[in-house]
Design a protein that fits this description.
It contains 15 helices and 15 strands. By secondary structure, it is α/β, with parallel strands linked by helices. Strands 3-7-6-8-9-10-11-5 form an eight-stranded mixed sheet, with helices on both faces. A three-stranded antiparallel sheet has the order 12-15-14. The two termini are 38 Å apart.
């Protein structure tokens, strides 16, 4: 295992100004340890030659990009960071804004409980739960915070996650540990990963008798790996450990049945609707299993405090609620091309192909199985060997050059001592865009 006194590995993320910000992950609540628990031989992991037989899918419809508001001339391969809102969904949100501003008191003061209840219905049906089981929040990180702040932790308790955790969630976990004296710990799941059973064993081996809550990503943000949350949930249930799934990327990328996951052992789930469902920014949800729901509250304590999960989450103060009200319009819009299974299948096939193609072009080892079994609609690949030893400043400069000089929006990632890029695959993307990315990166690497 790594030394507990040193910093956890640094990660890079790209914000909307296209700058790379590097964050030193120092422990906020005592020594944060990163524990390596995968001790088996690496046989079976993603190794060898990428599958060159994979082919990209045919487009679901011609000129799909015209349905989005993306800037002309930009090769946009970063849907995963903040999503992108289709024109029709933006129009639906604007319509709700106009209705609210035309009758502010009628809409917010008298009709709001009925309006938000109706807005939850299509989202709940999409997720396989009852509308009253969901609370609207502004993003998955807020939903995670709602769950973490609901815990009555003691100094004997432990919060556990993996090295693939989203940094904002890491910070939230450390914050609640700092207040209570509880322990924060990460289990190392090294790259390359696979098969899924090995990931499950690595995570489950990290559980301890005092582990109060395990937090795992359904789809990891920096490394784009689909974690086997069902199997992990089974193991948590057998050990009496609560499981919070950070599903920031999963809705719209993977088929979801939260009720079924709850029966297996998932106790809490937070997810975004503004990423792969293409909802407005600020559309997200938190779900808690019925035996945990009463303890979970919104971060804003308001008029309906103490009146139950549904009542508390339906009103969190005066804000722009149009993002929640337009979430159903996004689900309808994205499902129009033969249904959500077809949309998800298309994006998955594109990601599996892009993963194999980029690994082949860059001459690097795949990070996940080459059959695409641990990918959703994104893929992370190592940068070519000549770019493997970039400094942080060099990576920031390369990130800026990709966008400014070549009009390519794709995130570069520093994780676990390596340098990577992550591609997203949404229905508006075309194979030629990933080929162009490969050409540009290899040209820059040869300088």
């Amino acid at each position: 295992s790594r030394a507990s006194s040193g910093p956890v590995e640094r990660a890079a993320s790209v914000d909307f100004t296209h700058r790379v910000r590097f964050v030193a992950r120092q422990a906020l609540c005592g020594p944060a340890t990163v524990e390596a628990v995968a001790s088996s031989p690496r046989a079976g992991y993603a190794r060898g030659v990428p599958d060159k037989t994979l082919t990209p899918p045919s487009p679901l419809e011609s000129d799909l990009r015209s349905h989005w508001q993306l800037a002309p001339g930009v090769t946009f391969l970063n849907h995963g960071s903040f999503g992108a809102v289709p024109r029709a969904v933006a129009a639906a949100q604007d319509g709700w804004r106009r209705r609210v501003e035309a009758e502010p008191v009628e809409m917010l003061g008298r009709r709001w409980p009925a309006l938000v209840a109706a807005a939850r219905e299509p989202v709940a049906a999409f997720l396989g739960v009852a509308p009253s089981d969901l609370g609207f929040v502004s993003n998955a990180t807020e939903g995670v915070n709602c769950v973490l702040r609901s815990l009555a932790l003691s100094s004997d308790d432990e919060l556990l996650t993996t090295t693939h955790v989203y940094h904002a969630v890491r910070q939230a976990m450390k914050f609640v540990c700092a207040r209570s004296g509880a322990t924060y710990r990460e289990v190392d799941v090294p790259l390359p990963v696979g098969p899924a059973d090995d990931v499950t064993r690595a995570v489950v081996a990290g559980l301890r008798p005092n582990t109060r809550l395990l937090v795992v990503d359904h789809v990891t943000s920096p490394t784009a790996v689909v974690f086997p949350v069902g199997a992990i949930a089974d193991a948590c249930a057998a050990r009496g450990v609560d499981l919070l799934v950070d599903g920031a990327h999963a809705p719209g990328m993977l088929p979801l049945d939260l009720a079924a996951l709850g029966r297996r052992g998932v106790t809490h789930y937070a997810g975004n609707l503004h990423k792969w469902c293409c909802g407005p920014k600020g559309a997200a949800f938190v779900w808690a299993r019925d035996d945990r729901r009463a303890a979970v509250h919104p971060l804003v304590t308001s008029h309906w405090a103490g009146e139950g999960f549904e009542a508390e989450f339906h009103w969190q103060g005066t804000r722009d609620h149009s993002n929640w009200l337009a979430a159903g319009a996004a689900l309808d819009f994205m499902g129009q091309w033969g249904g959500w299974d077809r949309v998800r299948g298309h994006n998955h096939r594109m990601a599996a192909w892009a993963h194999a193609m980029l690994c082949d072009r860059f001459g690097v080892e795949p990070l996940t199985p080459t059959d695409g079994s641990m990918l959703g609609s994104m893929a992370t690949v190592r940068l070519p060997a000549r770019l493997a030893d970039l400094t942080d400043a060099d990576q920031a400069a390369l990130q800026q050059s990709l966008y400014t000089d070549h009009r390519i929006e794709v995130p570069l990632v520093a994780w676990g001592g390596g340098r990577f890029l992550r591609v997203s695959c949404q229905v508006y993307n075309e194979p030629a865009e990933y080929e162009r990315l490969a050409d540009v990166v290899l040209r820059l690497a040869s300088r």
